[in-house]
Amino acid sequence: MRAAYASSSKPDAPLSALTVDDRLDPDPPDGWVTVDVRASSLNHHEIWSLRGVGLPADRLPMILGCDAAGVDPEGNEVVLHSVVPDPKDPRGYSLLSERHPGTLAERVAVPAGNLVAKPAGMSFLDAACVPTAWLTAYHMLVTRGRVADADAVLVQGAGGGVSTAAVVLAVALGKRVYATSREQWKRDRVAELGATAVAPGARLPERVNMVVESVGAPTFEHSMKSARPGARIVVCGATGGHLATVDLRRVFGMQLDILGSSMGTAEELAELLTLMAERDLRPVIDSTYGFSAVADAFARLHSGEVFGKVAIDHLH
Ligand SMILES: NC(=O)c1ccc[n+]([C@@H]2O[C@H](COP(=O)([O-])OP(=O)(O)OC[C@H]3O[C@@H](n4cnc5c(N)ncnc54)[C@H](OP(=O)(O)O)[C@@H]3O)[C@@H](O)[C@H]2O)c1
């Protein structure tokens, strides 16, 4: 079957570690099922993997991809939950493409418990954008950040998949949402989603109860300064650098919670898909590529010029 995989690790030139070629079909162990992939989407995770972050050389070659929607052996339309229980991993789990082959292929095997029903009215492409970025945003907002108790939310780095999902979800949940971006065109786009767009580091009209932080070092000080007493700063990533400076006086003085967040559960993914179907929420899709142009899709993601998700149509 055709697949997109990491054939080497290139810390400084990740795209050169990507190979698109034939790989063997999945050979699922007991309790796993093989899904025909109809659509997938890219995440920054793939770029980290090609750099060798979280994907050591002894696991190569590795089919990339965490996200997919497709059809299971019974003909059900399903969305894949990417989190696979894994006692060997210090986190207790791994994501598809870390220890088990990922979704950027014609077929992928997952534990049967990782299949979630795709809402009937949702396209395969939209559904394939949800399992990582949207689930992460949902878990950050609802579970870790207790957004139900918040009225104002700050989302840093407005262009990414997680950030656009967080903006759409927080707006849908009735929150006042502020979003930063370094680029004016992204600030214009995020304003169209219902957020108040601000330049990085700018003073907000009010302090917020919750921050969705995925940029890291470049924005963390602003996240801390924008937080009101008792606020939650929820961190899922560090695209711009993971060594941030924290003024501890602000942490204890303002009684801030700095919370880590990783993915979400299969139950949360089902809840999120139901919420999206009920409220007619659609993922923000930057661009869609046929699988035959998957390398171009990676180049687009790596360019940083994206707003929302880069989706892959596996039927083309
Ligand atoms: N923990 C988890 O479960 C989980 C799940 C999903 C993603 N993640 C992580 O979350 C992060 C976001 O992923 P993503 O795929 O949504 O998007 P992404 O491609 O990493 O981009 C997110 C945003 O980061 C900003 N950014 C990038 N480099 C920057 C820099 N040097 N300085 C300031 N801002 C910068 C950009 O904002 P502007 O251009 O708008 O300024 C961009 O729109 C990644 O690090 C990813 O690995 C973690």
Automatic annotation (TrEMBL):
Lineage top rank: taxon: Bacteria
GO MF annotation list: oxidoreductase activity
Listed InterPro entries: ER, GroES-like_sf, NAD(P)-bd_dom_sf, Zinc_ADH-like
Enoyl reductase (ER) domain location: 13-312
Disordered as annotated region, ranges: 1-26
UniProt xrefs under Gene3D superfamilies: Medium-chain alcohol dehydrogenases, catalytic domain
Transmembrane intervals: none
Skewed-composition ranges (Polar residues): 1-10
Protein name: Zn-dependent oxidoreductase
Originating organism: Mangrovihabitans endophyticus
